[in-house]
Fold these 2 entries.
Entry 1:
Amino acid sequence: MEQVIEQKPTAFVDRRQTGSSGRSSGPERRQFQDSRDLERPDVVELAEAIDQYKLRHRRRFITFEELYEVISDLGYHK
């Protein structure tokens, strides 16, 4: 006779919600380092536009096409 072992379901742990701020204690994982040169406002503007795009579209990383879209939305053109 085969013995059947019942397993109790484990509780789901949502690791995205760590603490009250929603951030983990480790280093922030970004596609680009947060090395914004505060002496160049254009660089800060681009970095903020990329961050907003990633938040709006729920993306951690963006493609070159998406980067081009962000840059062209800022008014830059070739």
Entry 2:
Amino acid sequence: MVDISKLKPKGVYWWLQIGGWFFYILTAFFLNQFRGVTLNFTFTFSLFLAFLIGVGLSQTYREIIIKLGWINLNILRLVPRVLFGTILFSLLFEFLYFGITYLLFFYGDTIEWVVVFQEFLGWEILFLLWSMFYFIFHIFRNYKNEEIKNLKWEATKNEIELNKIKSQLNPHFIFNAMNSIRALVDEEPKKAKKVITQLSNVLRNNLMIGKKKFITFQEELVLVKDYLAIEKARFEERLTYKMQIEEDCFDWFVPPMMVQTIVENGIKHGISKIPKGGELKINASIVEGRLNVKITNPGTFNKNSKPETGFGIANTKERLRLLYGTESSFSISNFDSKTVETIIIFPPIKYQEP
């Protein structure tokens, strides 16, 4: 059996032509049998002849449609051309069909022009139906191709935007880390050297992970811990952190540096502005088949204040939109008067290493 889905467009149309005319001949055969027409050589040959002429003329008609560009015309310009084309090919069909059968089987008999006209009307109806199905099929095929093209374009556009956002992550992260080191250089040179070593390890891991669209949540937590180690050296007792992670969360795929960016945002806009500092908490669990990550830190969130929204929030929202559409969610709010709560929900995805 031929798998039409694997054929090229030209092959698809050929098989549709053959299948359509075969269905018509088969229907005509059973209708005539029902009416009591005797099955003989003349009757069988007439059906076979109609099949050959039908396939040949409809394929020729299709080639003319393509060559003259009818498929690109609007409906007002298309209708009169289709009417003219179907009449022309119906006349040609009847001329060939009647001419051949008359010469072979009925030569010398009186020509019944009413019957000839009725046959012509039958072919006209067939060609009109053929034209309708052809243009509907073509419109549907073009629509699907255009839809695929738009999806590919949208995917390319999203990929460009994602790469642009990811290219902003490393400089932003390095800038904040270098500020932390700068604060230690004069006061504690030895600690500053240690933090520089930690930063180099973070950047090495980050460069490898940054090439991927997704990493496991466990890999993301390694980045978060490395970053917190750098900030801990800077803030000392002013920064404490706690992680409560369910075991099922570790193999979940998430965008790289997304949780780390929110942690960074919480320290920069929350803990660093509080003289006594505070504790940052990260909780992760699987709820209703989705990874829920909750990050809490001391501070106050003001959605109307642009500086407070920070790079991290805008970046995270945009990346989630590009990667998941409406399947993920992000929220940040004041849990109480002294605590900010950020919740990211990641849907499940199937991902393989590139």
